[in-house]
Amino acid sequence: MRIISWNINGIRAISKKGFAKWLKKENPDILGLQEIKAKETDLPKEIINADYYKYFNPAERKGYSGVALFSKKKPKLIKKGFGIEKYDIEGRIVEAHYNNFILLNIYFPNGKMSPQRLKYKLDFYNQVIIYISSLLKDKKNVVLIGDLNTAHKEIDLARPKENEKVSGFLKIERELVDKLVEIGMTDAFRHFNKEAENYTWWSVRTKARERNVGWRIDYAFINNGFLNNIKGCKHLKEIEGSDHCPVFLELK
């Protein structure tokens, strides 16, 4: 099973850059999108007509946040959000249940705007950790894909020292990614690749992609009991159209 996760930074914008053609060529079994920035009624026809079961969870605020899931196989169950209004109005989660695992496609908040937004981000992280812990306690297999908006280790960004006091690499944020690992989740990319200079986001403003001055903030996590089902995980760095590149996860 081929799974792709991608923060597309606007589904209408990326549709003008050959997204439908790319999707048809890549043909993943599951595609999780983050930051779609659109409601379902605003989507281009080529996306609406794509040969997938499609599930959208847009934010109430126009042109902001939102996630989507495209699936070749119809999930047994779809959930959107936590049932907690302050998170659900931002359209950050689509959960899909398959025969042998639960997929969580999540767009984690950015905490750079203000102390209030940082607290919102940390609270959101804790809610995700509580929820995944409950799934693991119930002996469920969990695959988490999405934009975590946090670089976990120094190896995961080009300039760690300069960013120690910047949201996205704060100690308190990184410790929450540690907590994900502690509860029984494995970073699938790092399971295979321990090398530096592997990033998934680059600033467009500074043309950082050309110099590979980036951050690894997009991930696929899988619970430890399901690790034997991973065939591979890599970044599709050659795919452009967004300031993020897709993350590819293959399961047996």
Model description:
This protein is of the alpha+beta class and 252 residues long. It has a single domain, classed as 4-Layer Sandwich (Deoxyribonuclease I, Chain A), CATH 3.60.10. The chain has helices at 11-15, 19-26, 45-48, 85-88, 115-137, 171-182, 188-192, 208-211, and strands at 2-7, 30-34, 53-57, 67-71, 77-79, 93-97, 102-107, 142-147, 185-187, 201-202, 214-215, 218-223, 230-235, 247-251. The longest helix has 23 residues, at 115-137. The chain is globular and about 45 Å long.
CATH topology, anyone?
Deoxyribonuclease I, Chain A
- H/E topology pattern: EHHEHEEEHEEHEHEHEHEEEE
Seen as an oligomer or otherwise, the chain set is single chain
β-sheet strand percentage: 25-35%
Going by CATH, the homologous superfamily would be Endonuclease/exonuclease/phosphatase
End-to-end gap: 6 Å
Overall spatial form:
globular
Number of DSSP E strands: 14
How confident is the prediction overall: mean pLDDT? 96
The strand line-up of the biggest sheet is 3-4-2-1-14-13
Q: Could you name the ranges where pLDDT drops below 50 across 5 or more consecutive residues?
A: none
What is the SS-derived class? Answer: alpha+beta
